[in-house]
Design goal:
Blueprint lengths: L1 E3 L3 H13 L10 E7 L2 E9 L2 E7 L8 H15 L4 E7 L3 H5 L4 E5 L3 E7 L3 H16 L8 E6 L6 H11 L4 E6 L9 H11 L6 E5 L18 H23 L2 E7 L4 H13 L4 E4 L3 E2 L2 E2 L2 H9 L3 H5 L7 H14 L1
Parallel strand pairs: 4-5, 8-9, 8-11, 9-10, 11-12
Antiparallel strand pairs: 1-2, 2-3, 3-4, 5-7, 6-7, 13-14
């Protein structure tokens, strides 16, 4: 019988089973299921929202089809919560296991794979983007030279805007993907709205949500990776491959632009992109004010110090009217 883990004693047994397989139990799990034989947990699976993870089956019970039963039960649980699309980040050796359960392989490295199941698929999401591009710009991407940038813009600064303006000049049309993951001071709707307003004067630029396929390092599963270095390497490579094989291919994107980075994780990310997109990537220097890069980090710091007028000097004038009350709200909530 499949059970849901609730108390600490159950989780302790699950951790022990995972440890036997070289895995760890991740924090922030939405749900954990297990199968028990003779008061011993012999199989388990977890999920964080729609991402399946931490699947393990005791070697003595590999022939019992427990992995398939657990995945099926977890998909049923997702459906009961009105979630009909799901993904799994898993060691490469498990690709066949999930493909046999109707998962579709998206990309893989030498060690890790991303598969998805249910609907909508990545192709469905890209088709929706094509419809938006057709509606807003009146074009079919395949007929034009398209450039792009993926931005968090937490919030958008004058530095971001200068990078966008400079890059967009090189192409017929330019796509700005705003990262959808909500792990920032400003929410996705807030960031998206500010970016939209800031670039509204650029007739060849369209702003689109990144979709959940542009992987966030903050949600990338680590349960089967031993070190932070492994985690960063695999995350960046998978994200780069997803972007190249799907978004660049199907939206006819010829070039992607980045700003220079100092954060070690983002430096690794840029290097992975250079490896995957050697001739389709440009890393541009950050624009400066008074000899210092104009950064969103500086803007957020000023906001948290209640120096909101100083913060507004570093962002486009077009967003000042909405950033000012938002900044006050963020400061007071801190």
């Amino acid at each position: 019988m499949i059970k849901q883990a609730i108390d600490q004693s159950e989780f302790s047994k699950i951790k022990a089973l995972l440890a036997e397989h070289g895995l760890t139990l991740e924090p922030n799990l939405t749900e954990t299921l297990y199968i028990e034989e003779n008061d011993e947990i012999v199989a388990t699976i977890s999920r964080e929202q729609n991402i399946l993870k931490c699947l393990a089956v005791d070697e003595r019970f590999q022939s019992e089809n427990y992995a398939s039963k657990l995945v099926t039960e977890m998909i049923n649980s997702l459906s009961s919560n009105h979630i009909y699309h799901y993904r799994v980040f898993t060691p490469r050796k498990n690709i066949k296991l999930f493909e046999n359960m109707n998962f579709r392989l998206l990309v893989s490295t030498a060690n890790v794979a991303i598969l998805e199941g249910g609907h909508p698929s990545i192709e469905d999401e890209i088709e929706k983007m094509k419809v938006q591009i057709k509606y807003k710009l009146g074009i079919n991407p395949k007929d034009y030279n398209i450039g792009c940038m993926v931005v968090n813009c937490n919030p958008i600064t004058l530095g971001h805007l200068q990078l966008i303006e400079s890059s967009a000049k090189n192409h017929d049309y330019f796509i700005l993907f705003v990262v959808e993951e909500d792990y920032s001071l400003f929410t996705f709707p807030e960031r998206f709205s500010m970016v939209y307003l800031a670039v509204s004067h650029l007739g060849n630029v369209i702003v689109l949500p990144s979709t959940k396929y542009m992987v966030s390092a903050l949600t990338f599963p680590t349960y089967f990776l031993k070190t932070k270095e492994e985690r960063n390497k695999e995350y960046t490579m998978l994200d780069a491959l997803l972007f190249k094989n799907y978004f660049m291919k199907h939206l006819n994107i010829s070039h992607r632009y980045l700003g220079t980075e100092t954060d070690s994780v983002m430096v690794d990310y840029n290097n992975a992109l250079k490896e995957v997109l050697p001739d389709q990537l440009t890393i541009m220097p950050r624009f400066e004010k008074n000899g210092k890069p104009i950064s969103a980090t500086t803007v957020r710091k000023l906001i948290m110090e209640n120096k909101i007028e100083e913060a507004l000097e570093l962002v486009p004038r077009s967003i000042a009217s909405i950033l000012k009350p938002l900044a006050k709200q963020k400061y007071e909530a801190n």
